[in-house]
Structures are given as C-alpha cells and as structure tokens.
Design brief:
- This protein is globular.
- 32% of the residues lie in helices and 20% in strands.
- The strands form three sheets. Strands 1, 2, 5, 6, 7, 8, 9, 10, 11, 14 and 15 form an eleven-stranded mixed β-sheet that branches. Strands 3-4 form a two-stranded antiparallel ribbon. It has a two-stranded antiparallel sheet with strand order 12-13.
- By secondary structure, it is an alpha/beta fold.
- It has two domains: 249 residues, Peroxisomal Thiolase, Chain A, domain 1 (3-Layer(aba) Sandwich), CATH 3.40.47; 152 residues, 3-Layer(aba) Sandwich (Peroxisomal Thiolase, Chain A, domain 1).
- Helix 7 crosses helix 13 and helix 10 packs across helix 11.
Length: 419
Amino acid sequence: MAPTVVVTGLGIITPIGIGLNNFWNAAIEGRSGISKIPSFEGLPIDAYRSRIAGQIHDFDPLKYIDEKYANRVDRYAQLGLVAAKEAIEDAGVDMERENADRVGVMVGAGMGGMMMGEREISQLYDTKKPNRVHPNFIPTITLNSASGIIAMAFGARGPNITISTACSSSIHAIGQAMHALRMGKADMMITAGADASITPLVFAGFCSLRALSSRYNDQPTQASRPFDRGRDGFVMGEGAGALILETLQHAKRRRARIYAEVAGYASTSEAYHMVVPKEDGMEIAKTMKLALDDAKLRPAQVDYVNAHATSTLVGDDVEVRGLRHIFKSRANKLKINATKSLVGHTLGAAGALGAITSIMALKTGIVHPTLNLDDPDPECKLDGISSKTQEGRFKVAMANAFGFGSNNGVLVLKKFPTR
C-alpha cells in the first residue's frame, strides 16, 4: 500500500501579504492586492491596454534570505526561495537531522527568469556589446533556477524537478511530489510554485492576446471579478507558495504538526486549443473525477472547491459547467471561491496559492470571499459562490488549475485526521 502523504509546512508571498498569517487575515477580510502599474522603465504604461496588476510592493529578498542566494537568481526564484524558507520553518524541519538524499524539491513555474531575460536582451541590442551580457544570464533565466537555488540553500539532495505547464504548473508540482513520496523516492518534498512576470514584454504579450482586463484601469481593485457578468479578462499577478510534503510515517517520526492530507491528483490534456478550454467543460469534469478516484473519494464527499476562475470571458463559465456535470445537484451545496479575485492570476504560482488556500479552509472552516461578484453571470452562478466570507465544517477540498496548452490539473486535499 502506498504511504499517506501529508502537508506539514506552508509559506506564501502574495500581493495581499507576505507570510501565511498576513495572507490569510487579508484573504478572509476580502482585501484586494490589485493596483496600478506606475510604469515600465523607458516605456510609459499608457501605451498598454491594461495598466494594472497584482504587485508585491517593497519586497526585499535580503530581509529573508542570505545575499549569496538572493543575488544569484531572478525575482521569481527569490519569491520561491523565500516561500520555501517560510514553509520549512513552519514545518519545523531541521535539515541537519534529515537524510538530505531523501529530501527533494519540486517547483512549478510558468515563465522563468523573465526580468533578467528582458533586461539583458535590451542591453545587448542597445550597446551592441555581447561581451557585456551578464555572466549568470543562462543559469538565472532557466526555469529550473528556482528549484536549483532552493535545493542549494537547504541542502536537499533528493529528486529536483521543475514543471512548466503554464497556469497549472504548481498544481502538477504538488501532485508529482505526492507521487514521488508514494513511490518511495523521498521522505520529504519541498514543493513550490513561483512567477514574477510583470515585465514590459510579457505584459505586452498578454495585452496583445487580449487576455487582460482593461475596462477597470482607473478602478484596479474592481478589475479581477471571476464569475461576474462584468468580467473582461484576467489581472496579472506575481507571487509564490510553498508546501512541505512528507510521508505520514516520516511526519509522525519527527512529531510534526500536520495541516492536511494530499489525497488525490490528476493531470489531463484536452488536446483542444492552446489558450481556450473546451466549451462544454467535460474534460475539466473528467480531470476532477480522476483526482477523486485517485483519492478514493466520491463527488458527494467534497465540501469546498478553490476554483481556477481567472476572470476571463471564456473560462469561468466552462469551469462551472464542469462542476455542474460532476457534482450535479450537489454543485449548489459546495462552497466555492476564487483566490485570483484577491491577488490576480499569478501564473505558475496559482496552483500552489490555491492549494494553500484550500488547506487553510480545511483548517479554519472559513472560505474567503470572491471579490467583485456584483452581478453574477447566470452561466457561472452557483449558490456556494459568494462575495461574503463563508463558514462550514470542511473535510474534503479540491483545488483546480488549468493552463495554456490545453492542460488540466486537479488536487484533492483531506482534513487531517479524517473521521
């Protein structure tokens, strides 16, 4: 029998708070982290269709991590490293007492080191001096720079893998970390999701794709509005979330506090379209069903869903169709919310943030509000989606994450201990 996998530590950095307590207090109060972008260096923000984002203001990595690590990586990896540090401390892990060969790292990232990438390519063309390219350019921009620096900072010598599946990256990182533990490849996995791509080129690309909200440029806190009839695109965000996963046996051996059980996971491809989900929601429903099968649970046992819900015209309604299909009449009994309404869409970090939010709902019995749900879209309306804080006794939670490239990921979490 495969070992039970549990979560023993959490770390999080978002536009509404750095650290688990700061984030959670802001979330249940319904604070928005969306603000105007002041400008990009050399490019006026007025040139962009969208001018708002979920930004982490005044983040100084040197307040949290050693300079020799902080200065070697891009902002996204700094965020991931700080979140991992917080999760390790929260879990009470003493790496000197651990078998480092049995501690692995699994990170989800959507874009990688885009800040340095854009800066260096601009300087190269401006100066025409290729010998001036930063010597750490290559190891900094690679997608696995976050997992690499996390492993180095904490001496984790087990499996070290980066997963990049756009917006579902960190749900898959958590799920694959669970598989590694079930298969006996490690005793503990440091798993994280991170992205920081509010950069001139990436932002311009999403604007050109017409994926971003532009209607609320002068009202930034109202722009991210999942499930609402007035939604007009997602709001970009940045952030990181980290979780410490362990086998139950290992967690008990070190007398760790346990947040929740990672009970099930599923990954599928719709093989349909690079950026648009299949309209009937059947593939999303299938992924949720597979994750529940993996957890050996039935749809009737699910109490809460942290929805992917990006606030896009095509996306939110498809997810609701999938929920209605699998949960049938129970869909209106579920508590459902959209964390992106608070912090924006953090791309590769979104799944980790959703998983952490789900765990906190299981732990506290509180579901944070979905902001800006002023006029619910009839195609998205379910009784359990609310603009108010909701409470309940939750035993099973589901976190959804769907990414560009026709990619679906679903995680199922259980309250620990289960009764």
